[in-house]
Amino acid sequence: MKDLELLAGTLHRDGEDIYWELVRDAEAGKADQRPVVVLSHGAGGSHAVWYQQVLEVGAKYRVLTWDSRGFGNSTNHTGQLAATDGAHDLAAVLDHLEIADAHLVGQSMGGWHISAFLQQYTERICSLTYANTAGALWTDDLRKAMEEFGAAGGLRGNRELPLVGGHLALWTGNPDRDVAHAFLYQALGSFYSPPLDRLGETLAFEIDHADFDDLDIPVLFIAGEYDQIFPASMLRDSANRIRGAHFVEIPDAGHSPYFEQPQAWNAALLDFLASIDASAAS
Predict the structure, then answer these.
(1) Domains in the chain, ordered, with CATH?
(2) For tag attachment on the chain, is the N or C end more exposed, with fewer CB atoms within 10 Å?
(3) What is d(CA 206, CA 121) in angstroms, rounded to the nearest whole number?
């Protein structure tokens, strides 16, 4: 594996401080011109949740992680949490780092950010990966599933879960699951208070599957077999509505297969990116 170096910084934009981290080839340094993969976290997450992706993906690509407004190390002074605000924040980070275009990955809430980016900065996108997310691409079934999840309390619901290692974004049905690892998932979300009460402002943004008809942008959907929020069958249906989109279902995982089954999740993403690289080379 390549020796990697980590750059980190905070960009001030529109009254907010937006935190970012970039992993690149240590030997090449600033001369590292490999394609960039941007990993956008979900609600309750931060740049730190991608620790199982950064090194493996970073062996082949530069990897940018960031904290959206009100999450992780980024501020929420203005209270402006629309998906378009996130898109402009990400564009400003890319500009700061002199990155012209990138492969965008959005987990759950992050799917809304990458869809908003698509609407505002289409020419800067190499590919889109929707990971366990409707990503502003609603279908009737996905909307109903989200409404039912919200009616049951959403991520703050009162469903019966193990006190240690229990989380609505994880599948607890595997008796052999790593409880310590699941507990880490809980701990990663305990360092700050995410603005979940304002999440509706982000989710209000919508695009249509037909918006992709005239675009030549590769699209991947990744779903967890037991996702309670966005069921895999519904995400498969969403993928089928976009010409040429790929779909991968990760077994034995809930809403966060990037965390629960990182090897399978990383393989799905890297295979998708490799197919894009192969097409570009041919």
Answers:
(1) 4-281 (3.40.50.1820)
(2) C
(3) 16
